[in-house]
Amino acid sequence: MLTFRDNNLRLMKPKFKTVQAWEQAQMLMQPALIRILDNIRKQLDNSAWKGEYKEVVDPIPGYHLCLTSQGKLIEIDIWELCYQVCFQNYLTLPNNIFSSYDQSSHEVEIDTRLIDDTGEVDWQFLEAKAQKSVRQVFENLPDQKI
After folding, report:
1. How far is Cα 140 from Cα 102, in angstroms, rounded to an integer?
2. pLDDT in tens, 52-84
3. How far apart are CA 100 and CA 12, in angstroms?
4. CB atoms within 10 A of CB 123
């Protein structure tokens, strides 16, 4: 689920089936980003890894989390974590949270469980998915001998 930079694997931009799906993604992405960043902070508080954010502008503006420990560096695309939260059955290519970018699109489906009966964000479920995505990243970091 997470890797050192591997330029042989490609990320694809999400493609939405309907305008409604695009609007739902617009509603969910910012809350997902906020919950992802907060959960990263919590994980870093209890980790040997140190994290810094790096702004990237190409190919898609956003941020990468740069994790360092004992001379190792791992970069994670924050958007990929948000996609895992917001989209149903979104699978990052194996070992590919960070890699080069592919201009082709990948059709995605919004995880509508994140939207309650009133059309608002279900914050509890969003938090649970964000926690799970971030926890999996940290669980898959290379072992560090201290």
Report:
1. 24
2. 999 998 777 889 999 999 999 999 999 999 999
3. 9
4. 12
